Every structure is written in C-alpha cells, then in structure tokens.
Amino acid sequence: MAAEIHPKPQARKPVLLSKIEASQDVVNTAVIIPKEDGVISVSEDRTVRIWLKRDSGQYWPSVYQSMPAPCSCMSFNPETRRLSVGMESGTVSEFIVSEDYNKMTPTKSYQAHQGRVTVVLFVLEMEWVLSTGQDKNFTWHCSESGQRLGGYRTTAWVSGLQFDVETRHAFVGDHSGQVTILKVEQDNCSLVTTFKGHTGSVTALCWDPVQRVLFSGSSDHSIIMWDIGGRKGMAIELQGHNEKVQGLCYAPHTRQLISCSSDGGIVIWNMDVARQETPEWLDSDSCQRCEQPFFWNFKQMWDSKKIGLRQHHCRKCGQAVCGKCSSKRSTIPLMGFEFEVRVCDSCHESITDEDRAPTATFHDSKHSIVHMHYEPTRGWLLTSGTDRVLKLWDMTPVVS
C-alpha cells in the first residue's frame, strides 16, 4: 500500500493585504485610519495624502495636499481628526480632516524648530503639541492658542519621543544613544533621569502605559525594554535584528512587541515570558576559567612564560574568558539572544533545549522599512519603505 503523503503545515506569517504605490519620494510616516479603509501618508516629496480604498480594491488619494517643505513626520488623532505635520523647515502645520476624509482644512502653524522636525505628537488630554527636531530641542505648544509653552535642550538631535498622559513624563531618545525622561508641566519641565544602554543612536521608542514599560530601538540593531513601573532600573536586551531598528509597536492585548529594521525584517516578540537581564561584563587580567593571562597582562605572561590571549565575554554569565574556554555558541532567548552568541563552556552545558526555545518569530517584508504603524483593533500593520511603497499587512496570524 502506498504511503499517505501529509503536506507540511504552513508556518504562520503576516498576510500582505495591499500595496500602495504612487509617491515621488520616500514616505517618512504613514498611519492606518481606525475604522476606515484608509491610510494617511507624509512624504519627502512635500505631499500629504489620504488614501481611501475604492470598490476596485485599490487605494487612491482622496486628498493630495502640497506642503511648502518636505514632510518629515506627523501625528493623527482619530477622535478629533486633527492632523499635525512636521516639516524639514522646522514648522509644524495642523489640519482638521473632514468626516468623509475627502478634505483637510488648515488650522494653525507653529515655528517649533530651527531644523528638521523629527517627531510630532498631539496630546488631546493636555491640548499640547509636542515636537522634537534636529536643532536638539524638545518643545511643546498649546494646540488651542498656538502659543509656545516650553522647551528643553537635549545633548544630541532627537529621533524618538513618547509621552505618558497620567504622569506627564516625556521620553526623549537621541542620537547619542541616550533616553532622557522629563516631567512636563504647563510652562516648564524638569529632568527626572537618563538611561544609557545603546551603543548607537536611538531610532524608535514605544511606551506601554499599562505595564509602564518603555521600549527603545537603536542603530546598534538592539532593543532594550526599560521597566519604568518596577522602579528597579531593570533593563532587558532583545537581539533579533541584523540592521538598524526602524520601528516599534506594542500589542497590549497579547503582550507582543512588533519591531522592524532597515533590512525589511519584522520580528514579533513574546513579552509574556519571564525574561532575564543580560549580565554586566566583568573585568579581569586573566581568563576567569583557565587563568591564562590576557595579552595586556605583561607581568603574568613573563612569570608564567606564556603568550597572552585575547579577551572575550560569556553572554550568559558575563565572565571574561579566553577563546578556548568559550568555543561554544548558543541562543539564549529568555535573555533576548535569538541568534547564537558566545558562551563559556560551563554555561553551554547548563543551557537546556527548553532554554533554547525561541520567544520571537521572524518575517521578511521584502522592502527596506523606514517606518511602521500598528492598528490594534483590526490587527493591521502598515510599513513604508525606501522603495516608496506602502504595504498593509494582516498581522492576526502572528499577533494573537
């Protein structure tokens, strides 16, 4: 009797719903309109476009608004339909979008910065427009009067901004790799603390107000989860990208983090697991396993008549070890290492197959991502790429 053939089950992955192509230049920011089959995009080609899905299934612009300068960022509030657009010139222009999304009416403009606006946020509860720029300034304006309320000078130009309404804390990520936490009042702000964990610039921030956790992505390919609410200074590192992290979104109902990188990678992280902090790397003049001297330890080299060795570190215990005592590689997903990393021989023996079980899934968007936006009610993800294409994804097969 012939053997019965069972097809392999298909791996769950994002489903590409639609591609939107028509921009003349890179789309810097785009958002999905909740409860509508629509997308709003701002582009380096100086345009703001509102795309609505037609009967043909294609997305076509219902609004095509030319701006006086390239559009670098935007914020859209669905409740008020207020659209805030940041530009290369340092100006933030505001519009009210009509209920049918066929018209946008200018309301006011703020000369917020002396350089390119990098992030803009509208906070309805405060009636504030927060913005950051390449002029190294964080500013906030009153959205009713248009008046500038205050500002803060950062150490480097800012590339990430989040705001917690309950505590009025602003999280500001900059090109030096630092995250600054500010307490913002009506007309002043005060420095709360700074975090420095990245070796490259901060490229994306994401705030979860329920768990009170901040995620920061960086050009060093890593993501760090900062436990703000725990007040213990806990920082969990996530290593799952091969290129610069470009966007972070959090799905609170499933406790999953979505991240994307410039090589087109989309990673879904399960944050509903007990993760462990990566250890501090220890300093030593000799291998902490075999006690062989490292190459700068001239005295021990001379005394033992041995050639010094190169120093490495075990990613699991943090000990300084030589290459011979750390010849093994392993994934350590609960410590954030989804790719194989160097571990000492002792730690390698202690890592079980269960410890190696992945806590993330990896997907290829097939375009170089510059920005992404997640719409949780439908489970849709929007990615914009350097190829000037917007892609709409159904993420429910993987975010569930």
TrEMBL record:
Protein's UniProt keywords contain Zinc-finger: yes
Subcellular location: Early endosome
Gene3D superfamilies referenced in this protein's UniProt entry, alphabetically: YVTN repeat-like/Quinoprotein amine dehydrogenase, Zinc/RING finger domain, C3HC4 (zinc finger)
A Pfam family it matches: FYVE
GO MF term set: zinc ion binding
Residue ranges constituting the FYVE-type domain according to the UniProt record: 281-352
Keyword Lipoprotein recorded: no
Keywords, in A-Z order: Endosome, Metal-binding, Repeat, WD repeat, Zinc, Zinc-finger
One Gene Ontology cellular component annotation held by this UniProt entry: early endosome
GO biological process, one term: positive regulation of fat cell differentiation
InterPro entries named in the record: WD40/YVTN_repeat-like_dom_sf, WD40_PAC1, WD40_repeat_CS, WD40_repeat_dom_sf, WD40_rpt, WDFY1/WDFY2, Znf_FYVE, Znf_FYVE-rel
WD repeat ranges, renumbered to this chain: 20-51, 195-228, 238-279, 362-395
SUPFAM superfamilies: FYVE/PHD zinc finger (SSF57903), WD40 repeat-like (SSF50978)
Superkingdom in the source lineage: Eukaryota
Name of the molecule in the record: FYVE-type domain-containing protein
